[in-house]
Predict the 3D structure of the following.
Amino acid sequence: MLAELDEMRRRAEATRAEAVHEESRAENDKDTRGLEASYLARGQAERVAELTAGVQLLRHMDLPDFTDESPIAIGALVDVESELGVHHYLVAPAGGGTRVKAEEREIQLLTPTAPLGRALIGTRTGDTVELRLRGALRELEVISVR
């Protein structure tokens, strides 16, 4: 997520510089290059702000102790099995989709606002959830919560 934030900052700065550059000035009332560049720069600046806030949330996130009897909540490390195999998730307040390597496995950050996150919140080890993924109904079993 930090690498994504750094790259987005570089892109936002380059786009901002382009938007205010002399060559972006409109030559006539039909020329929208400067306006388009300013819209893009604003969108990128908003994304930088979102990523920065997400990084701060993750840095200050409490990691409670979970057991297999604990309901899944933010901070839980969850292993889920489906017909596609076992997947490892860290339920986090931000950064959904980000993948990290930890404990010699790939762990994906999952937010409670994602469809899978919503389905898992409150479940426990041994529970199953059904979720429509890519048009197919999938059954997922929670195999551990830590």
Observations:
- The mean pLDDT is 86.
- The beta strands are 77-82, 85-91, 99-102, 105-110, 128-133, 136-145.
- The radius of gyration is 21 Å.
